[in-house]
Known about the structure:
Blueprint: H1 2-24, E1 26-35, E2 46-49, E3 55-57, E4 63-69, E5 74-78, E6 85-88, E7 97-99, E8 111-113, E9 118-120, E10 128-132, E11 155-158, E12 170-173, E13 186-189, E14 192-193, E15 205-211, H2 214-217, E16 228-233, E17 241-253, H3 262-270, H4 284-287, E18 293-305, E19 309-321, E20 328-341, E21 347-361, H5 366-373, H6 399-405, E22 407-426, E23 429-448, H7 453-457, E24 466-489, E25 492-515, E26 544-564, E27 568-579, E28 588-599, H8 604-609, E29 613-627, E30 639-647, E31 650-657, E32 668-681, E33 686-698, E34 701-705, E35 715-719, E36 722-738, E37 742-759, E38 770-776, E39 783-789, E40 796-799, E41 801-805, E42 811-814, E43 820-822, E44 832-836, E45 841-851, E46 854-864, E47 867-869, H9 871-876, E48 915-917, E49 920-933, E50 941-955, E51 984-994
Parallel strand pairs: 1-7, 13-16
Antiparallel strand pairs: 1-4, 2-3, 2-5, 5-6, 8-9, 10-15, 11-12, 13-14, 15-16, 17-18, 17-51, 18-19, 19-20, 20-21, 21-22, 22-23, 23-24, 24-25, 25-26, 26-27, 27-28, 28-29, 29-32, 30-31, 32-33, 33-36, 34-35, 36-37, 37-45, 38-39, 40-44, 41-42, 42-43, 45-46, 46-49, 47-48, 49-50, 50-51
Amino acid sequence: MYKNFLRLLSCCSLFCALGLSVQAQTRTISGKVTDKADGQPLPGVTVADNNKSASTTTNESGRYSFNIPAGTKAITFSFVGYEAVTVSLGAANTINAVLSSTTNTLEEVQVVSVGYGTLNKREVSSAITHVSGKDLLAVAANSPLMSLQGKVPGLNISNTAGADPNSSPSVQLRGVSSRNAGLGPLYVINGVPGGNIDNINQNDIESIDVLKGGAASAIYGTRGSNGVIIITTKKGSAQSQMFYDGYASFDYLTNKLENLSADEFIANRVKNQKGQDYKGNTDWLAAVTNSPAFAQKHTLQFSGGSAKTNYFASADYRDADGVDLRAHKNEYGARLTINHATDNNMFVAALTVAPRYMKTSNSDQGNFNNALTLNPTYSIFDNAGKYNYINTGFFSNNPVENANVIKSDAEIKELDINGSLRMNILSNLYTTVTLSQISRSAKLLNFTPSTLSSIVYANKTTQTNYASQEQQENDQKNIEWTGNYNLDLGRHHFKLLGGYSYSLYNYKQVKAQNYDFPFDSYLWNNLGSGLYNGGAAGQGQSAVGSTQNGSTLISFFGRLNYDFNNRYIFTASLRREGSSKFGLNNKWGNFPAVSAAWRLSEEAFMKGALPWVNELKVRADYGITGNQDFDNYLSLLLYGGAGYFPYNGQYYQVYGPSSNVNPDLSWEKSVNFNAGIDFTILNNRISGSLDYYIRTNKDLLGYYNVPVPPNTQATTFSNVGTMKNYGLELAISAEAIKQTDFGYNINVALAYNRNKFISFSNEIYKGGTFQDVAGLPAPGSPGNIQRIQEGHSIGEFYTLRSAGVNDAGALLVYRKDGSIVPANQASNDDKQFVGNGLPKFIGSIGNTFRYKRFDLGIFLRGTFGYKIFNTAAFYIGTPSSQSDANVLKSAYDSSSKYSLLTNSATTSIASDYFLENGSFVKIDNVSLGYRQPLASKYLKSIRLYATGRNLHTFTSFTGGDPEGVPVNGLTPGVNTSLNYYPSTLQLIFGLQATF
């Protein structure tokens, strides 16, 4: 028994010793966390030790208490919307912390994407603009690019149909750069060139970097000529988190064109024998408008993991109507990113999968213009309650009927997949292999019923109802293998990149159509039941069609970054790239680039003389980039239909050459020079950059006349022509007020751009010295109103120069000899250069205010120094406009100069009488938010926000919103179609919640 007692005593002693040992290996830390802005406690703050082995959250009083390992050196306080704070531990067990909102400080962005890697901002020697995801504008738009509008000097993003949920913006960097190749930049998403911008949820964006300088974009070779936009999406972290963002938006028509009411039409048009009274009373513009157009979007994000494995997952849903009756979009998207590292960090793997499904109903953008021109005394419905048949006016149809019964739908599926494996061979040497695929499948569906009034009225027996289906498949596969080596030799720092890239593009299309179905209810789902294309009286050959084409792009590239003592910086890169699009003699091209920078602020003489200068860097870069954004097979001899050949009483389709072969076809080449200054002053309160650039685009692509024979065709697609853009860009950010309860930041972006077309010809292909563009449609024969001419800028209006209006209401113009005649007595030889539609200046001012937990953003944007051709006034803005068509109210407003044009003899003759100043300033975005931390264990914080977009436009332009007229492309300042999609004022109400 004694022995058993000793055994029991020994066991108890052992357990006590273990307990004392465990107690000695931990310590208890407690404290309180408050908000720096107002001193209030912050509930829901995550407190974790530096090894992530223990964590807790603060309670409703902002207090916390938890046990941590005895050897812990520091703890970290983190909370969404606030700067994380790490506190080193001493002997004290009570640690209090004060957190600052992320809007409190003007942070210098430390890391920017430069293509195939990142650099510290201080190491960058080329023109790159970095925008953090939290600085993007709050928008309810189809494309995340609209949230970047006005943020980057030199990057012009516009959408002339912004309230159409299926529209896409036009994007142009540093002016127009081509005649016949693409004008848009290259998108690189999470390191994958050619990424799908439509498959990005704005809430998933971590940052956007815009490579503007040639030295930066030259690493992408034949795709870098129009700049590069690098989008990085969010990734997971060891901190578990769930985030929700949801909003509802409402679009209201604003700056709309005003036409005559029925009473005004009778008083002005019918009375003057310019129209008939059909005894109805219809506001056609209101009848085809869905206002307010409602949209909603919901995003749910999850992230978490450990030090070795983390994930980020998001899902979003959007349902949006357009301001026209037919437009609609319903979409679902998701994104999953997983990162994993082995225990020894030898291998790091990453996988991203992003599917998206969209079901759309396409707008009929011509319906608004149709509504503007229709006689308002017409009724929508006839006496029998059916849609009224309309056969007068510009378009001779019923727009309400078109919007409600004609269907134009689409089903779109997108899938982006990319995976990478990185091997860390040494601490300063690693290699990465990345595989990716970008797929897009679109099914286009169209249907016109047999009940359409124009079909019924014409008593058609064939080609009644109509349906079609078209399937389009786009697929891009990429493989990239890169190696990175870093070496530090004292004050000498080297970074070396080498890589290989292979991209395979493929496009497939199949389509089918038919007429005369037994039932309208079939829509497009039973094309075989139609009789027209398959029947004896039909055209069977046009019933179906299909095509397939593709291209291959192969690249080898390298880059060296060197700096001496973090003071003198040098970068050189070279990309050698080959494309199957190019001719046999020009398959491969070299794209070199160099850049250098000097950080003067690191020099002793600067630190002593100007201590208030925190950072001052001068830089210059030179690079050659290319543009291969044109159709496949244009360098090859292609065959097409060449008529029919009779044989034994039958006619057979024969084929022959349809294009000329061009073995010398190559990429467009851009020679870029950029010089700039980056600065930060006054204790980092003010920072900015100034850039001057010259870009010369050579070997512009186009069709040129050639003799037949020896050529089989009269034109050849070739590299001919030279164009130049130059300009200045300025960006300034300032933390104007920095107080505990109140802060004010201001951001300014300004860009000046000029363009000059140098040549249409070279030694082989001799073109003319000019090309007339911007042709206006009927009625009448207005012709082209702009001219691209050697020695002049893109966007030059070339029309008759007006000399006023005579007493008979006829437009007067100047002839070349200076005499004045009515416009119908002048000729094309009397046309002159009368103005330019290319803006000289584009600028923005962003203002961000913070008061305690409130935040207010006010963003102003403007475009200056250009002319707009008032297309609406030209066609429907004068008393002499087409008979029985409605016109704008200004046509009979004595204060409008257009009311003077009463003589139909000079109608449809274009002149600078219709040019107006296009300059404008917009109150573009105003956003107010309030963040409230919560004590609930289920919910950490919420933020309520309201945003107004396009609130007011200050302009002298009388043709509606001047931004509705495109300024990107080859014909800036003119809308060459009669289609009109009105501008909208948008209100957004949203909620963000962190769990």
